[in-house]
């Protein structure tokens, strides 16, 4: 008997190919659905036991099996917000320099170099952060800050504490380096969509480059910049290895940014393989579920914002 | 005067930002060379990972990483290319295609540690042990969305005339796609695949609870498998000097490989253009 092949029935090839393509594409929805389901399923025992207090409790004690997500949530959000606040001005500066100020010939290689920052694996940032940046940061900035800033009311409490190098602020700074490339390339792309005429017209009435960029170009791309910011925030929230190295891994909430803390991803990475029982594992997966929900919301918002502007 | 001063100050600040960005890259690469180069010797590639404080190399970790990345890419490539083809050729602007595009974007930005947790639950828990397969699956899931979106972007660049010319000769659509469209934008798709290899070969978090690690030489994906990123993580955090040295050498190795893949993927389209 001869095998039936699609060569014998060329008209069926189309059908087969389309189906294969469709099944592959549909797999994405199945995958997303399964990821969500598996997180809910895995987190269920912890959710059932702690209920809403899982989100509000700062207790994290594997021995008594009391678990709350607030410490990790705090560290995740604060380090990411610091990262975005630091990366935005630098990202704007880089994007403006590369697309408006420097000659086209050197702009391209410089931009590639900035983009290579995104290719460096997270774990390398972590090692560099812990062994090179943190000691330098402790000696260079933290000692100075605790001598000079810690007396100032309100702000002072943020910069008090022992100069250990690792901690919330260090994590925020390392994260800022990691999200710089994505921020830069999105802002640069947005700048390139502003019509040339607008620039020429403003230069024509005698404006300086500063005035053209700050008063005309940046207001024109406010929306995309905001979208890029949220996208970068989403990146920072889920970052794992870099944070695991430099955040210090302390289950506590402290007003000082110099103190060690923890994040959702760092807690999971640190504790998962040494988890002491099923409830501990379930609580860690519960943290994962919280992270999933936050990044889903943040990334969804960013996508909607960026798409609306793109149209 | 003030306007001019403001302008100069502004330009200086933009230049300074760029210097910071580039400075970080240079500093990281400098540190890697400074600390990693000392351990770049023959033993690194010929010996397996040593016990606590001992001397050895990274052979098993390198081979494990290559195997898992390889399986991951082999699984993700056909699915990704077909899915991207559906989005570009069949789904186009339909509601279903938009939904899939949205979910694909979400999968692309899902923290990789969550992919690790997911694979832990569906593969490690059900099979009862950590394995190279589980690691490969996690890596495949991370590579998949990147391949899908580059394939779609590339296929959208294929001129309609090319498709019409093919269809005009009576060629069925699947053959037009396979033999004309893929060929026309093949380099672009390969670029996407190279970038996703670069991306997954540095992933650490999803391997922590899927492939775990192993200090033995093993090419059997049914067992826990040694890999570079997790080895680097464990050795960097250890108190032993010889382990720390191996971690830095491994870090140098993996970063160079990834940067090379990135530069290659950028150079590929130019090379092709020049040849034709």
UniProtKB/TrEMBL annotation, chain A:
InterPro entries: MetI-like, MetI-like_sf, Phosphate_PstC, Phosphate_Transport_Permease. Its main location: membrane. Part of the binding-protein-dependent transport system for phosphate; probably responsible for the translocation of the substrate across the membrane. The gene is pstC. Residues 73-302 form the ABC transmembrane type-1 domain. It is found in: Cell inner membrane; Cell membrane. Belongs to the binding-protein-dependent transport system permease family. CysTW subfamily. This is Phosphate transport system permease protein. The keyword Transmembrane applies. It is a multi-pass membrane protein. The chain crosses the membrane at residues 21-44, 72-98, 110-138, 166-187, 281-306. PROSITE patterns: ABC_TM1. Pfam families: BPD_transp_1. It comes from the Bacteria. Keywords: Cell inner membrane, Cell membrane, Membrane, Phosphate transport, Transmembrane, Transmembrane helix, Transport.
Automatic annotation (TrEMBL), chain B:
PROSITE patterns: ABC_TM1 (PS50928). It comes from the Bacteria. The chain crosses the membrane at residues 12-33, 62-88, 100-124, 130-148, 180-200, 246-265. It is a multi-pass membrane protein. Keywords: Cell membrane, Membrane, Phosphate transport, Transmembrane, Transmembrane helix, Transport. CDD domains: TM_PBP2. Signal peptide: none annotated. Its main location: membrane. It holds the Pfam family BPD_transp_1. Residues 62-265 form the ABC transmembrane type-1 domain. It is found in: Cell inner membrane; Cell membrane. Belongs to the binding-protein-dependent transport system permease family. CysTW subfamily. This is Phosphate transport system permease protein PstA.
């Amino acid at each position: 008997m001869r095998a039936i092949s699609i060569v014998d029935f060329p008209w069926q090839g189309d059908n087969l190919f389309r189906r294969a393509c469709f099944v592959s594409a549909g797999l994405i929805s199945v995958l997303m659905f399964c990821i969500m389901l598996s997180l809910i399923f895995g987190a269920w025992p912890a959710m059932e036991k702690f209920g809403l207090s899982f989100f509000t409790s700062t207790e994290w004690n594997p021995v008594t099996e009391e678990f709350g997500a607030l410490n990790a949530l705090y560290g995740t959000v604060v380090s990411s917000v610091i990262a975005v606040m630091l990366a935005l001005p630098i990202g704007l500066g880089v994007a403006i320099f590369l697309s408006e100020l420097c000659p086209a010939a050197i702009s391209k290689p410089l931009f590639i170099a900035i983009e290579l920052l995104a290719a460096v694996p997270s774990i390398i940032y972590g090692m560099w952060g812990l062994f090179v940046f943190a000691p330098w940061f402790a000696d260079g900035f933290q000692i100075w800050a605790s001598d000079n800033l810690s007396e100032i009311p309100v702000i002072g409490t943020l910069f008090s504490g022992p100069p250990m190098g690792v901690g919330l602020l260090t994590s925020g700074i390392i994260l800022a380096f990691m999200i710089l490339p994505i921020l830069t390339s999105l802002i640069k792309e947005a700048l390139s969509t502003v019509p040339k005429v607008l620039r020429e017209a403003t230069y024509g009435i005698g404006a300086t480059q500063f005035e053209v960029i700050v008063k005309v170009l940046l207001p024109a791309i406010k929306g995309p910049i905001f979208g890029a910011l949220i996208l970068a925030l989403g990146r920072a929230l889920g970052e794992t290895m870099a944070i695991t190295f430099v955040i210090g891994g302390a289950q506590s909430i402290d007003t000082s940014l110099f103190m060690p803390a923890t994040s959702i991803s760092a807690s999971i990475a640190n504790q998962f393989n040494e988890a002491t029982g099923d409830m501990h594992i379930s609580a860690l997966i519960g943290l994962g579920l919280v992270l999933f929900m936050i990044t889903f919301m943040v990334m969804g918002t960013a996508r909607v914002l960026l798409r609306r502007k793109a149209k | 005067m003030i306007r001019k001063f403001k302008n100069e100050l502004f330009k200086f600040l933009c230049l300074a930002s760029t210097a910071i960005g580039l400075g970080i890259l240079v500093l990281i690469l400098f540190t890697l060379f400074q600390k990693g180069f000392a351990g770049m010797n023959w033993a690194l590639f010929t010996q397996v990972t040593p016990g606590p404080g001992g001397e050895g190399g990274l052979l098993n970790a390198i081979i494990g990483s290559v195997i898992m990345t390889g399986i991951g890419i082999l699984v993700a490539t056909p699915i990704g290319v077909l899915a991207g083809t559906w989005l570009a050729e069949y789904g186009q602007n339909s509601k279903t295609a938009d939904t899939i595009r949205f979910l694909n974007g979400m999968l692309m930005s899902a923290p990789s540690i969550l992919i690790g947790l997911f694979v832990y639950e569906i593969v490690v828990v059900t099979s009862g042990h950590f394995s190279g397969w589980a690691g490969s699956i996690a890596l495949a899931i991370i590579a998949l969305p990147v391949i899908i979106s580059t394939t779609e972007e590339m296929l959208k660049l294929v001129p309609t005339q090319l498709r019409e010319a093919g269809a005009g000769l009576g060629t069925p659509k699947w053959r037009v796609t396979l033999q004309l469209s893929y060929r026309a934008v093949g380099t672009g798709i390969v670029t996407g695949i190279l970038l996703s290899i670069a991306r997954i070969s540095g992933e650490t978090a999803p391997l922590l609870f899927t492939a775990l690690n192993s200090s033995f030489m093993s090419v059997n994906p049914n067992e826990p498998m040694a890999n570079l990123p997790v080895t680097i993580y464990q050795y960097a955090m250890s108190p032993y000097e010889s382990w720390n040295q191996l971690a830095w050498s491994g870090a140098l190795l993996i970063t160079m490989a990834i940067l090379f893949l990135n530069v290659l993927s950028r150079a590929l389209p130019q090379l092709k253009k020049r040849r034709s």
